[in-house]
Specification:
single chain, 20 helices
Length: 452
C-alpha cells in the first residue's frame, strides 16, 4: 500500500530533467506547488493510518523537503523564501482561521460554563508565564525579551482540531471531561489570539509599558468585540439583501470569502494579525442567517425522492440530516480551498526547520525542556477543572499545540524575534505534544472506563 502511494513521487523524480529544464519563475512555482500538494496528500494519510493528525504528516514532509540539502539535493533551498509561495502560505492560514471561525458558534463561546472558562484561562496564563518568564530565560539565556514573549504565547496555544479529533476517534466526545476540554480549547483560541495581537504589537512598537499593553489589549478586544457586535447586527440584513439579488451558491461562497479576506485586511490595517480578522469573520456566519440562499443541489434531489422511496418515520430522520448539510453548506464550500492552500502553510512551516541546529545536543536538550514546560502548563489547567473531573484527562486533552502553535511561531519568525534554533525548538515541541497526546489519552481513558 505504501509503495503504491509513493509511486507518483518516483515517477515525478524520473521525469525530473524534463520538468526542471528551462523553468522560469512561474514554471518553477507551479512545479513547487505540484510537489507540495502531491506529497502532502501522500504523507497526510500515512500519518492518519498510524493514528496521528494529517497536519503532522504535512509538517514532517516540510521538514524533509527543507533539509534535502544535507543530502546534496538543493532544489528546494529557495522555496521557503519565495514571495509567491509565502503569500499562498499566508492565504492558507487565513483560510484555516476563517474555517475555524465558521465551525465555532458564538453561543458556544458564551455558554461553555464557568468550569471550562476557568480551565481555558489557566491553560493560557500558566503556560504563558512558564514560557516567557521561567523556561525561556532558563533554557535559552541571553535572548531578547520579545523572543520570550513569543515563546510564552506559543506555549499558551491549544489546538481545537487535534483535541477534538482525539476524543472523537476514541468515541469519548460526550463524556464531561471532553466537553470541558473542547469548551476550554475554544476559549484558549480566543484568548490566544488576543495574546498574539498584544505580543505582535509590542514587538513592532518596541516597548512593554503597562499603558501600551492595556491599549493593545483594548484594541484587540475592541476589534474582536466591535467587529462581531457590528457584524452580527449587519450580517442578517446584508445576507437578506444579497440573497434577493442572487441566491446562488456562487454568491454565498463569494460572500463568505470576501468577508473573510476583508476582515483579515482590516485586522492588519489596525495593527493586528490578519488571522484574528479571519477568525472574527467566521463567527459572523451563523447557519440561521443563510436560510434564504439556494439549497444544495444534492439536497434538492434527495428531498424529491423522499415521499416515494422512504416511509414517514425515516423521512424525518433524513430531513434532519439534509437540513444540517444545508445550514452548513458555507463551511463545506470553503473546504476545497482549504485543501489547496492550507497544506502549503504547514509544509512551508516545516521547511523552516533547520535540522543542522538539532545536531547540537544542547539544542535537543532545550527542545525537551520547552516541551516539558508546555506539558506542565496544560496539566495545571486540568487541575483547575475542579471536583468530579479527572484532571489528567482534562490536562492532557489541552496539551496538543498543533496548527495554532505553528501559526504563533510563524508570526514570531516573520517579525524577526525568533532565531532559527528557537523556531526549530518550537516546531519540535509542537510535534512532540501532538505525538504524545493520542497514546497517553488512550491509556487514561481505558483506566477511567475500568474504574467507572
Amino acid at each position: 500500500m505504501t509503495l503504491r502511494r509513493l509511486f507518483p513521487l518516483a515517477l515525478l523524480a524520473a521525469a525530473w530533467p524534463v520538468f526542471a529544464a528551462g523553468s522560469d519563475v512561474v514554471g518553477e512555482n507551479l512545479l513547487w506547488l505540484t510537489i507540495i500538494l502531491l506529497a502532502a496528500r501522500l504523507f497526510a494519510p500515512l500519518a492518519q493510518k498510524i493514528g496521528f493528525p494529517a497536519v503532522l504528516g504535512e509538517l514532517l514532509l516540510g521538514v524533509m523537503l527543507g533539509n534535502l540539502g544535507l543530502l546534496g539535493f538543493h532544489y528546494f533551498d529557495t522555496i521557503a523564501n519565495d514571495p509567491i509561495i509565502m503569500f499562498m502560505a499566508e492565504l492558507g492560514v487565513i483560510i484555516l482561521l476563517l474555517q475555524i471561525g465558521l465551525e465555532t458558534r458564538l453561543g458556544d463561546l458564551v455558554s461553555v460554563g464557568a468550569r471550562a472558562s476557568l480551565v481555558g484561562s489557566v491553560g493560557i496564563a500558566v503556560p504563558f508565564v512558564l514560557g516567557a518568564f521561567v523556561a525561556g530565560p532558563l533554557v535559552l539565556p541571553g535572548m531578547e525579551f520579545n523572543a520570550y514573549l513569543f515563546l510564552g504565547a506559543t506555549l499558551a496555544a491549544t489546538s481545537v482540531g487535534i483535541t477534538g479529533r482525539v476524543f472523537r476517534d476514541l468515541g469519548k466526545l460526550k463524556m464531561p471531561e471532553a466537553q470541558v476540554v473542547l469548551g476550554a480549547a475554544v476559549i484558549d483560541d480566543v484568548l490566544g489570539l488576543v495574546i498574539l495581537a498584544v505580543v505582535s504589537s509590542l514587538v513592532e512598537a518596541g516597548t512593554v509599558s503597562v499603558v501600551d499593553v492595556l491599549l493593545i489589549i483594548a484594541k484587540a478586544v475592541a476589534f474582536l468585540g466591535g467587529s462581531i457586535a457590528i457584524g452580527r447586527a449587519v450580517a442578517p440584513r446584508l445576507l437578506h439583501w444579497v440573497s434577493h439579488l442572487d441566491r446562488s451558491h456562487s454568491m454565498l461562497f463569494s460572500l463568505v470569502l470576501v468577508v473573510g479576506l476583508f476582515m483579515a485586511w482590516l485586522a492588519h490595517a489596525v495593527g493586528l494579525a490578519p488571522i484574528i480578522g479571519a477568525f472574527a469573520a467566521g463567527l459572523l456566519f451563523e447557519p440561521v442567517f443563510l436560510k434564504e440562499f439556494e439549497t444544495p443541489k444534492l439536497v434538492q434531489d434527495i428531498e424529491a425522492l423522499l415521499p416515494v422511496a422512504v416511509d414517514t418515520e425515516k423521512q424525518q430522520k433524513i430531513r434532519k440530516v439534509l437540513e444540517r448539510h444545508t445550514s452548513h453548506q458555507h463551511e463545506h464550500m470553503l473546504e476545497p480551498i482549504g485543501y489547496f492552500f492550507v497544506p502549503v502553510f504547514f509544509v512551508l512551516t516545516g521547511m523552516q526547520v533547520d535540522l543542522t541546529a538539532l545536531a547540537d545536543p544542547k539544542v535537543v536538550a532545550v527542545a525537551l525542556g520547552i516541551t516539558v514546560a508546555a506539558v506542565i502548563g496544560k496539566l495545571a489547567a486540568g487541575f483547575a477543572a475542579g471536583k468530579g473531573m479527572n484532571p489528567w484527562l482534562v490536562g492532557w486533552g489541552m496539551v496538543p499545540r498543533g496548527e495554532v502553535g505553528l501559526i504563533f511561531a510563524m508570526v514570531g519568525k516573520k517579525l524577526g524575534v525568533m532565531s532559527e534554533a528557537m523556531f526549530s525548538v518550537i516546531v519540535i515541541m509542537v510535534i512532540l505534544t501532538t505525538l504524545l497526546t493520542p497514546p497517553i489519552l488512550t491509556v487514561l481513558l481505558r483506566r477511567h472506563s475500568t474504574r467507572a
